[in-house]
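STRUCTURE:
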């Protein structure tokens, strides 16, 4: 089969690799029909190379049609249409029973001290082959795949793999009170969808902050009040307070993460790590690594006293300096973590079989063949061509 594989920093290719096979009685093999390129994939493209091996298959936002099932699979059968969550979660352990599928005890990567495994996402999270491919082996066939109806195009359901539950959890964790306000830092796929989820759930004052014109216009078209960071960088807090009764927003979602703009020290750390041999760089990042924290620092500054910061952008630094005096003084509440996909599916799936209130049918800016993946990664990282969300279509 053809698959998107990692070969080094800013070097992804589409290679011919062996087809996946049934390895356990509850495995299924899915023929992929659509698979997203995620902002988190760019961390693999740029920063997290020390935790990858050449030839690793990338991607964690797939959907498709069940091709083959193991002998103990009863929940799906060949021909069923399914979405595959990015969490590799068993659905039956204690953590999964608590709605913490990202901490699945069956797939925790204990050798790395990490939570549940993820598709297509480094040695830290199990080095499980990903879904930017023609076929994908999916374990836990009775509990992991999400069956979806035939009929609507893939765009209606594919975001159940990551974008929708990540955004839903970000808004849930933000805990905006009735009549309250929410600022969203970063209007990439997760930030953009978070603004839509917040509006759907009744948050009237939603403020989106970014510096890419196409992203700002996209959010503005959905009724979001937008601020251009390139215009308001130094006085951003003042402008946000003007829009929130002088106090600041009740909650801030940081949808940017470890590669924020305006973080020269963290950027230098990333560059230095990139010059080290992989084994040394991995150890450095696991013990002394720092993230580019400008977005998180902005969230701490913007949120009102007693407010909540919800982190959905991925962070990975082990020595990140946090402004604890300010955070303690402002009595900030902080919630974060990988999205627990199955926890939110019952809330989201009914919206996708209704009138598309979240605008998923037109959410993708680009739909490309799988073979175009290398160019898509480069364009997405450079924030060019108005690219916000790309779906690769192996067929």
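SEQUENCE:
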């Amino acid at each position: 089969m053809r698959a998107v594989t990692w070969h080094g920093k800013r070097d992804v290719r589409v290679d011919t690799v062996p087809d996946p096979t049934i390895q356990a009685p509850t495995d299924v093999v899915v023929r992929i029909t659509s698979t997203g390129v995620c902002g988190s994939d760019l961390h693999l493209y740029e920063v997290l190379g020390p935790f990858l091996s050449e030839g690793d298959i990338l991607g964690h936002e797939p959907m498709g049609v069940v091709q083959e099932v193991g002998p103990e699979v009863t929940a799906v059968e060949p021909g069923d249409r399914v979405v595959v969550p990015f969490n590799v979660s068993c659905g039956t352990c204690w953590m999964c029973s608590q709605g913490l599928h990202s901490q699945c005890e069956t797939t925790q990567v204990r050798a790395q001290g990490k939570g549940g495994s993820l598709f297509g996402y480094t040695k830290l999270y199990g080095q499980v082959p990903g879904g930017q491919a023609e076929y994908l082996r999916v374990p836990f066939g009775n509990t992991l795949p999400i069956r979806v109806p035939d009929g609507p195009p893939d765009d209606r359901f594919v975001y159940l793999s990551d974008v929708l539950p990540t955004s839903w959890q970000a808004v849930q964790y933000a805990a905006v009170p009735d009549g309250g306000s929410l600022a969203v830092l970063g209007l990439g796929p997760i930030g953009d969808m978070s603004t839509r989820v917040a509006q759907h759930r009744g948050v009237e004052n939603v403020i989106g902050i970014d510096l890419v014109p196409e992203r700002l216009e996209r959010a503005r078209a959905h009724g979001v009040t937008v601020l251009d960071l390139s215009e308001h960088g130094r006085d951003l807090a003042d402008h946000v307070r003007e829009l929130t009764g002088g106090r600041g927003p009740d909650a801030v979602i940081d949808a940017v993460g470890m590669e924020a703009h305006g973080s020269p020290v963290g950027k230098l750390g990333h560059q230095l790590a990139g010059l080290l041999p992989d084994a040394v760089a991995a150890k450095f990042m696991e013990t002394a690594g720092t993230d580019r924290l400008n977005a998180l620092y902005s969230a701490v500054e913007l949120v009102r006293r007693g407010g909540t910061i919800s982190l959905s952008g991925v962070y990975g630094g082990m020595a990140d300096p946090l402004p604890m005096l300010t955070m303690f003084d402002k009595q900030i509440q902080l919630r974060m973590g990988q999205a627990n996909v199955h926890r939110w599916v019952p809330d989201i799936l009914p919206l996708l079989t209704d009138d598309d209130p979240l605008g998923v049918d037109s959410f993708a800016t680009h739909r490309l063949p799988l073979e175009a993946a290398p160019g898509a990664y480069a364009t997405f990282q450079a924030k060019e061509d108005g690219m916000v969300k790309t779906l690769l279509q192996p067929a």
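REMARK: The CA atoms of residues 1 and 17 lie 6 Å apart.
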